Amino acid sequence: MPGRIQSIERAAAILRVLAGGTRGLSLAEISRSLELPKGTTLGILRTLQHVGFVEQDDETGHYQLGGGVLRLGSRYLDGNELRTRALNWADALAGRSRESVRIGTLHEQQVLVVHHVFRPDDSRQILEVGSLLPLHATALGKALLAFDPHALPEYVRDQSELPGFTKRTLTEVADLEADLSRARIGGWAAEIEELVEGEVSIAAPIRDRRGTAVGSIGIRGAIERLCDGRKPHMEQVSYVRDAARAISRELGAGPW
């Protein structure tokens, strides 16, 4: 059986030390606390800083936990508590909108569908729980990109063009950024025939007690049902936003 990897154990120890502090810690304090040479400690800190798990204050030089660790903590919630807290609200949204409802979270630069409620009619439908969807071509994904400040830079890094699925998919990063800016202003996101021709989806972010977007909830259906021309019906938008706010309150988010 393979043995433990010392460098990973030391990195984990550094993260625990930083998590236990109420303020940033200096290199000397971290090194002394763990009884590690300063050179070794500095090398690990720089690696953790590179991947976003540690941040360094420009003025004091002290180290603290970075946004990457906070997002990992949020993702722990996603597949378990998020789905549990959202069940009733997702059912209610399906009833009000008369459309299918999906809840998604960010997973390896895609949207992972963690809950799916069928459209309340007699049509044949396929359960989508566990499906992975593109972030830039779905309303669920856009809601995550728009309201997670770290998600978009990571998603578009090293990409000059985004994959296209229909002639309406936003493949230019600048166009996507403009669309996400509108989503942030309005508090909701939409995609109109960007993933599948003839289909539309509307979504809004789900936040936790820190105000972090830990997921999104949305409806999906035919363009003739959900749109007036090429604009989503605002009544449907209000249903989605009401559901997102309700689930967010269940997770401890304040009023917003």
UniProtKB/TrEMBL annotation:
Keyword terms: DNA-binding, Glycerol metabolism, Transcription, Transcription regulation
One annotated GO biological process: glycerol metabolic process
Pfam families: HTH_IclR (PF09339), IclR_C (PF01614)
HTH iclR-type domain span: 5-67
GO molecular function: DNA binding; DNA-binding transcription factor activity
Job of this protein: May be an activator protein for the gylABX operon.
Boundaries of every IclR-ED domain copy: 68-253
PANTHER family xref list: HELIX-TURN-HELIX TRANSCRIPTIONAL REGULATOR, ICLR FAMILY (PTHR30136), HTH-TYPE TRANSCRIPTIONAL REPRESSOR ALLR (PTHR30136:SF24)
InterPro entries: GAF-like_dom_sf, HTH_MetabolicPath_Reg, Tscrpt_reg_IclR_C, Tscrpt_reg_IclR_N, WH-like_DNA-bd_sf, WH_DNA-bd_sf
Protein name (database record): Glycerol operon regulatory protein
